Amino acid sequence: MNNKKGKILRVYLKLAAPVLAVLTATGAMLFASSGIGARAKELFWSSELPELIISAELGAKAKIERLKEPEPEKPPSAPEPEKTEEKPREEEPSETEKPEQETSEPGLVYRSDTEKPETKTDEAPETAEADEKPEKGGRLSASEIEIKNKTDYSPDIEELLNSEIDLRGRTVLIIHSHATEAYMPSGEDDYVASDPFRTLNGEQNVVKVGEVLKAVLEARGVKVIHDTGLYDYPNYNVSYSRALTGIKTDISEFPEIGVVIDLHRDALEGKDGTVYKTVADVCGEPCAQVGFVVGTNASGLKHPNWEKNLAFALKVQYTMCDKYPSLARPIKISRYRYNQHMTEGSLIVEVGCTGNSLKEAIAAVKYFGDCLADVLTA
């Protein structure tokens, strides 16, 4: 009797095995595609997240690859005629193409004092003073500035660093072409994602980082307008053209605007899909790093004063390297314009990346804001 029951049980198990396999696979797919599954994957990443450190103190390097994102502007097919206003096509640039994919190995942003020759006490005064920082009003050295130039242009970095810019007293516009960009969920900084690493929650995306920057600048006496429009939602591919409309509207309402900070969160991912974070140690506080993107007219669009934007970026980065050595990433000079033709003080500012937490980004933007205020109130 027992043998008969055993045979029947084995037959049932053989019949049930394929059904169980199908149900198991289906359940796994549903879990992976659900918010719960995605959150589990994010938690796994954050537990063993590799660090991309570009630090004066550590000098570490890591190969990275920027995530593909739509090209902000499409160059015209032929040189445009001289006229007072740009074509509507340029005012609302196409973003259907994609920029070249970057695979770079970022070097040190700042050379620490330990890398400089030691000054001996018995050296002549003029030799001993050679390694000292220039006095206020003296000529600044570009030896500690690093540029990632994606154009064929060769700007004179030292001349631009020492050139005169007058943005004192001008109002700062903080805007976000990609306002829904968010960070790695961590602790209380969790959110409902609209897309991977994106959320409509203004308390968890880069709009929150912009609010912190606004507070830092206002505490230093700088007037700030914060445009919190979601220009990348619901259509990400027209975010820069929509942001350009926003910038024009803001400037028409507040003509004293002279600085436009387009604040973003960067995305750093390896070829194998590894998500990286940037790391700085400022005043003993761990935080993200901050990088600038400076646009040019290399794509064919009008941007005659792009070198003034670059001079502005250089002065801010120089201050960052001086006060908070590991905070700055190299400045990227791009072929694309990124709406920076609207003022002579326009920058894309990337605060941290997908691997960083919101807390790390907020810490970083406070130090960046301190340096930006130094330049604007000097």
Overall mean pLDDT score?
Answer: 75
Q: In which order are the strands of the major sheet placed?
A: 4-11-10-12-7-5-6
Could you tell me the CATH topology label of the largest domain. Answer: Aminopeptidase
Second rung of CATH, namely the architecture of the largest domain: 3-Layer(aba) Sandwich
- Which structural class should the secondary elements be placed in? alpha/beta
In CATH terms, the superfamily of the largest domain is Zn-dependent exopeptidases
Helix content: 25-40%
Which regions contain 5 or more consecutive residues with pLDDT less than 50?
26-70, 75-131
Number of domains: 2
What is the first-to-last residue Cα distance? Answer: 97 Å
Counting H and I runs of at least 4 residues, what is the number of helices? 9
Given this structure, which CATH class of the largest domain is correct? Answer: Alpha Beta
Tell me the strand percentage band.
5-15%
Rounded Rg: 25 Å
**Overall spatial form:** globular
